[in-house]
Amino acid sequence: MDSTLFFVQLINGLQYGLLLFLIASGLTLVFGVMGILNLAHGSMFMVGAYLAWYFVQQTGSFAASAAISAVIALLIGFVVERTLIRRLYKRNHLDQVLLTIGMIFVFNAMQGLLWGNDPLGVDVPEALSASIPLTGIIEYPVYRIFVALFCVVVAVGMYYVINKTRLGMLIRAGESDREMVECLGIDINRLYTIVFAIGVMLSAVAGVVAAPISSIVPGMGEHILITCFVVVVIGGMGSIKGAFIGALMVGLVDTFASVLVPELSSMMIYIFMAFILLIKPQGLFSS
């Protein structure tokens, strides 16, 4: 591999890893704070992509579509937590798995009913459709750089909110001791609703920004969910920092494996996960 190809793969790997973090952060936030194993999290990624396509058709604007999709995803998260997830707080993980698997089937059926099963696509916004020359013959799309920077901004924002704001303090307190937070007069159920809705919105927004660079197809949420679970397991269940580091690792391993060992690329992230768990059985940054 020459230096130019290495550099391009490095950028691709980091960009893919940052996108994975955007999805996995919501998954690990919901599990870390609420203890809810949400297998339907990938479905929110799919819903975000389809909403982006639909509202681009209606408004002609990707930015407006992204904003509307994020708000709708937030409302979906609010309704799902209030009507379904809230019933699981005192149940075991098996009940959580069964309910959230059922939610996957419901979301897939609704997707087919609303938008059909044909592959769809969203055009890259015109303002971000250019490319930056890396060498005399290789150019890199501006939109992919935008996606990476957007994910970095979200990661920095999450760090600030969780570590520097009152909401973040309550989230960390709720993660550590729910009963004590309730004794202090904090409405823990409202806090959980906010956390779950934010987690859903993060996954849906990831689907929105991924829509112009990937095909929008039925079942796309299940594939990304498995990869995100690999990220969360490597980083440590419930750790945002672990999700960030794990996502970058998985992104780089997956991208370089597709070039260096294409015949084994589909299993390399799982081999990498097994290697990490042999060294750190609880993940790199288990909380």
TrEMBL record:
Entry protein name: ABC-type transporter, integral membrane subunit
Tell me what topology the record assigns in the membrane: Multi-pass membrane protein
Q: What is the lineage of its organism?
A: Bacteria, Pseudomonadati, Pseudomonadota, Gammaproteobacteria, Oceanospirillales
Kindly list the places in or outside the cell where this protein is found, as annotated in its UniProt entry. Answer: Cell inner membrane
Q: Does the keyword Phosphoprotein apply?
A: no
Listed GO molecular functions?
A: transmembrane transporter activity
User: Any idea which UniProt keywords this protein has?
Assistant: Amino-acid transport, Cell membrane, Membrane, Transmembrane, Transmembrane helix, Transport
One Pfam family recorded for the sequence? BPD_transp_2
Q: Per the record, GO CC terms? A: plasma membrane
